[in-house]
Design brief:
This protein is of the alpha+beta class. The chain folds into three domains: 178 residues, Efflux pump adaptor protein, beta barrel domain (Elongation Factor Tu (Ef-tu), domain 3, Beta Barrel), CATH 2.40.30; 64 residues, RNA polymerase II/Efflux pump adaptor protein, barrel-sandwich hybrid domain (OB fold (Dihydrolipoamide Acetyltransferase, E2P)), CATH 2.40.50.100; 75 residues, Helix Hairpins (Orthogonal Bundle), CATH 1.10.287. It is 25% helix and 41% strand. The strands form five sheets. It has a six-stranded antiparallel barrel with strand order 2-11-14-13-12-15. Strand 17 and strand 18 form a beta hairpin. It is rod-shaped, with a radius of gyration of 39 Å.
């Protein structure tokens, strides 16, 4: 039996009205509490990443490149072998010198025995003064000749060691100027390497801001490419200001990063005023509404949307001077992306 269309529609409308009469379950959220801290107001400035310590490694020897162990962008440890020169001729000279030292050793042993024999006879006046002196000079000459060959061997061994060009420090390879089979001259640049422990961001600031900036202060830094938050330490001030803008460059040391490149951008929050007491909230609590910043707090079991005025960025936190944001206030940090004002909420955790 078929149900008339008008009855079907009536049943659907009735079901919808019953469903609408039921309240939606409370939204589950995680909250934290506002704290207060004395911090300086700051401003976002765009800076550039660079390495403050760069070594352009050259060859101390002329030779043929036998092996190249690195490519641009590789990360290497201190003393890692970067490039090796061919040492076939050098190895032959080393073996030849060692053979000569062994031959001289045999002659020296014989000359020493002869000298000792003549020395005893000379003491008994059983040999002429000339024969005695000739044996002494022959022995001394062989001693010096052996020493000269040993010095030559040491020089050859140093040359062989320096045919293996190594990293002076742990770092990242910026450039590679040679490849297998290339002939390099003494002093030619082979590899450029930057110290991974000397990563900096250089940021221009107005000279009027310097009164609020202190060396060794930590400042929040955002690596733009990865939206990565970290802290850097103000280490130095570049000695030359921009002639036109009068901006001065701050040098801020960053922790080592494995995936950054020279000249990438970073946003640095630099102090622009004296320290003041601000309400501190996590960045996770912020929500955007028509381009403005808001947070959700809880009033009588419901979500309440409040505007905030951010005056300081502190890595994963922000400082606000909004008078209605007070210490101890609960703010939503998880689940806020789905909340609506006056929506019922259930707190399932605190951080």
């Amino acid at each position: 039996m078929r149900i008339p269309l008008y009855i079907t529609l009536a049943l659907l409308a009735l079901g919808a009205s019953v469903a609408g009469a039921q309240e939606a379950p409370p939204a589950k959220v995680v909250v934290t509490h506002v704290s207060k801290k004395e911090v300086a107001q700051n401003q976002a400035m765009i800076g550039t990443l660079y390495y403050d310590r760069v070594s352009r490694i050259s060859s101390e020897l002329a030779g043929l490149v036998a092996t190249v162990h690195v490519r641009e962008g590789d990360r290497v440890d201190r003393n890692a072998v970067l490039v090796e020169l061919n040492t076939d001729i050098l190895d032959t000279e080393i073996n030849l010198t060692r053979t000569r030292i062994a031959q001289i050793g045999l002659r020296l042993e014989n000359a020493e025995k002869n000298f000792q024999r003549l020395e005893r006879l000379h003491a008994q006046e059983g040999v002429s003064e000339k024969d005695y002196e000739d044996s002494l000079y022959a022995y001394q000459d062989l001693v010096k000749e052996k020493q000269a060959h040993q010095d030559s061997l040491q020089k050859l061994l140093i040359q062989k060691k320096r045919s293996r060009i190594t990293a002076p420090f742990a770092g990242v390879i910026l450039s590679k100027e040679v490849d297998i089979g290339a002939w390099v001259q003494q002093g030619k640049e082979i590899v450029s390497i930057a110290s991974s422990q000397d990563l900096f961001v250089q940021v221009p600031v107005a000279e009027t801001m310097l009164r609020h900036i202190r060396m060794n202060d930590q400042v929040p830094v955002l690596i733009t490419a990865y939206d990565r938050q970290l802290f850097g330490t103000i280490q130095a001030l570049a000695p030359l200001a921009d002639a036109k803008t009068k901006n001065v460059f701050l040098k801020i040391r960053l922790p080592a990063q494995d995936d950054v490149a020279v000249n990438m951008s970073a946003i640095v929050h630099v102090a622009t005023g004296a320290k003041q007491k601000l309400a501190i909230i996590p960045r996770d609590a912020l929500v955007k509404n028509q381009g403005e910043d808001f947070i959700y707090t809880i009033k009588e079991g419901k979500a309440a949307l409040l505007p905030v005025h951010i005056v300081a960025f502190l890595g994963q936190q922000v400082g606000v001077d909004s008078p209605h944001i007070v210490p101890g206030m609960a703010v939503v940090i998880e689940g806020n992306e789905r909340l609506r004002p006056d929506q019922a909420v259930e707190v399932i955790g605190e951080k």
